[in-house]
Every structure is written in structure tokens, then in C-alpha cells.
Amino acid sequence: MLKPVRISYLIRRAQLLVYTSLADCLRKYRLTPMQYMMLNLSRRGSEMSSADFARRFAVAPQSANEMIAVLQRKHLIIRKVASENRKILRISLTSEGARLLQKCDRQVDRMESRLFAALSRADMAILRSALTMLIEGEDREEGAEIRPVGN
């Protein structure tokens, strides 16, 4: 009797499909999927530090700083000294960044509609819930307070 395909394999295949599709639809805006996700998080109202981004995306602090520097050079984000600690720089979206993010969101919405067309609204709700539970469960194990990326 054949064993069912491993869920980890299916998640990895889906991740590659989503990442490639996201990269394709963001290319004309000269953004990478990671830069888009950073901009997306920056609009959520809670200004994050580069250390927060590094933890959220599981990258080295230096890598997060390099990505942030690129977005800053493009005038899409700004860094401000945190009121609670002058050593911390908080990241916020600029108005130019917000405008670009809206354009990207429209493209990503179309891409997701196409990519997930085989799934019903109920299927999408179940998928979103299951993935959120998976992420939050792992975050609890690691002692992190991380909310899912995206809308």
C-alpha cells in the first residue's frame, strides 16, 4: 500500500509555486517577494525594527539590514529613532512606499485569484486557518510572538 504524499513535500511544492508567481508579478515593480513582505509588514501600524524583521523572516540581522537599506534607498521606507530606546530604529512606510504597495497588492490579488482558483472560499478559509495554526504553534515552541505575514 502506497503511503500518502508527505505534507512537508506538498507545502514545499506550494511554497515554490507561490514564490515564483509572486516574483513574476512583482518584477515590473522591481521588488522581490521578501521586499514586498517587508513593505506589507511596515504598513500594519506597528513600526518594527530591523531585529524584528530578521526574527520574522528567519534571516541574519545583517541580511535584514541589507534588505531594509535597499527599500530605504528606493524611498519606500524610513527609519526613525524609537522613543523607548534611542539605539533602536523603527521602520515605517513612506507615502511613496504606500502607493507602490497598493499597486503591488492589486497584482498579488490577481495572482492569488488565479493561483488558488481551484479552491472555494471555504477551502481558502480552512487553508489559511491551518497554516496560521502551524505557524503560531511553532512560534509558541520557539517563544516568539510572530503574527502571520500578509493579509
> Level of helix content?
55-70%
The end-to-end distance, rounded to whole angstroms, is 40 Å
Tally the helices.
6
Q: Provide mean pLDDT, rounded.
A: 86
| CATH C-level | Mainly Alpha
- Quick one: overall form? globular
Largest pleated sheet: 3 strands, antiparallel
Describe it.
The protein is mainly alpha-helical and about 150 residues long. It has one domain (about 25-140): Arc Repressor Mutant, subunit A, CATH 1.10.10. It has 6 helices and 3 strands, in the order ααβααββαα. It has a 3-stranded antiparallel sheet. The longest helix is centred in the C-terminal third of the chain and has 22 residues, at about 120-140. The chain is globular. Mean pLDDT is about 85; it is low at about 145-150.
In brief:
It is built from six helices and three strands; from the N terminus they run ααβααββαα. The chain is mainly alpha-helical and 151 residues long. It has a single domain (25-142), classed as Arc Repressor Mutant, subunit A (Orthogonal Bundle), CATH 1.10.10.10.
Describe the secondary-structure layout.
Layout: H1 7-26, H2 33-42, E1 48-49, H3 50-57, H4 61-73, E2 77-81, E3 89-93, H5 95-115, H6 121-142
Antiparallel strand pairs: 1-3, 2-3
Name a few traits of the molecule.
single chain, 151 residues, mainly alpha, Arc Repressor Mutant, subunit A, three-stranded antiparallel beta sheet, 3 strands, globular, disordered C terminus
